[in-house]
Amino acid sequence: MTLQPEDFWSFYEWLVRPNAFLESALLQGIVLLVLAILLGLIIGYMISAARYGPSEGFYSVARTVRDLVRFDLPGTSARRVMALARLAFKEAIRRKVLFVVGLFVAGLLLAGWYLNPESDDPARLYISFVLTATNYLILALALFISAFSLPADIKSKTIYTIVTKPVRPTEIVLGRMLGFVAVGTMMLVPMGLASYLFVTRGLRHNHLEVTDVRELSNGRLEGETDYVRGHKHAFSIDPDSGGLGLTDMVRGHRHVVTRADDGTFTIGPATGGLRARIPSYGQVQFYDRQGDKKDTGIDVGQEKVQEGYASAGIARLVGVTSGPRRVEHGYIEGGSLGLAEFLFSDVTPDRYEDGLPLDMSIRAYRSYKGDIVTGIRGSITMKHPSKAISSNPITFIVDEYTVDEKILPLSIEGTDGNETRMLNVFDDLVDENGQLLVQIRCLDRSQYLGVTQSGVYLRPGENSFAWNLTKAYLSIWLQMTMIVAFGVMFSTFLSGPVAMVATAACVLLGFSAEQVYDTRHYIDSGIERGGGPIESVVRILRQDAMTTQLDVDDLAGKVIKTVDAGIVYSLDAVATALPNLPKMVSTAEYAASGFDIFGALLARHAAATLGYCILAFLVSYFFLKSREIAA
């Protein structure tokens, strides 16, 4: 899993950005809210002016604002809101939405036949499936019940039984939102429990026999387990371990092997497959082949991973120059002075009592085939941040596309200036601020290793998988809440089908925001990548390559590019104003990859959800207030 630079921020840094306040989420949210209110007032005035005339239209909008601030908000009753929420809840239940839970369970039963437990990473496969299926079903349900409820009541005139009572528009909107959120919450709980049981039972397996057991000259036992689900494990038992041993890590899990007094072996259940690693990331510094500092590693070609962009539309409104934020593997050259150096903080004995767990997700790039069986070699060196003290290199073989887990010893031989001696990590290599340097090199000449800031980290602890899955479902709940708010908002002034299409368009545009930012970036930079939508259609009709200059007249080319720029920048502004749903959906990637979903990430999503719900509430109020049913 590759992270963006802003993924390392705390909630406070994301919200306020002390060093760059103009790019803070708080300022961008305020700007978005003010622009939305101004745009809503303008649209409201235009509609009122068309109905009542220019002067009376102005007074109508002013009265609506006055009623909101003076009467409706202060007079909103929590008791009436809860009563309306219960009505919305019962209405959704009458529509038999609980069948979605049955559909989800049936999908899990069918998935048990088709998901391959013999895949390279079965835990990731199972977790990704349950979270993706839950996400799609819950969002589709939220879209349906929130978009059709109010228009159906207006059409059947059942809404008049409510508005004839002392009920305010604010209470109608809040009641609908809370009721539908309660329905989704009631369905998410059993779906989450079913998902947990499905994942844990689906990955459960046992090895029953051991083979090829042999005793070495030092008394150590080595052997292999039997072949189950397309894999087997090698294990070893030291003579002083009391008959306990561990298998090697295969497909993300291992087993405990116990040797009884009568010489029989017992293999325990799989452990380590379902994890929630708590990473401690460091700052990365690259060095080129001459040993000089570089901001980035070597670029070996089209290996860039585009993980997202800054909020370009809002950034331009507040005067910030914003562009794409790319995350890519920086490569270091083997057999040279090139290396990647990670500075880790808070390296203390309290956090790392039995060694330094170092996890690495490293890529390899081969400039020639070489020995493809052995793999590319690398080394790990621990170094003091300011003194000439470093450990001897610890060599390893690169294991691509997996998390290679190493335990760095607390006592290791190394050099202190010109002296070679045994070093203690905390006494000799960690400075007074608790910082430690870890250097990674490639040992094979003309081969390359690729790393990212998030690809190498220390692991001071792990969290519970059940709690991590719960946090993933909390993220789905936040997405559902946001969709409900948008669905209720559109249903206050559109018919049911149109409201559903409008809400779905917001969702799809939110998911495709990254592609919009990508196209806008290439238009800004002048890079020929097929251009905008009009230019792309022209290229398809003329069968032109996307990287060549558009072969049209100068005037026609300027017109096409101008129209494309207008379309792309308009979409960019709309996509920036909409919620960044890919970021919220990406929390499933944390759980599937075995990483703990840190609280700051959920706090960001909760703050964004709250902001969009407030915005949707205000828009819903003004449109509902303007209709005769709420007069």
TrEMBL record:
This protein's UniProt keywords: Membrane, Transmembrane, Transmembrane helix
Regions crossing the membrane: 25-47, 97-115, 127-152, 173-199, 498-517, 602-624
Coiled-coil regions listed in the entry: none
Entry superkingdom: Bacteria
Name of this chain's protein: ABC-2 family transporter protein
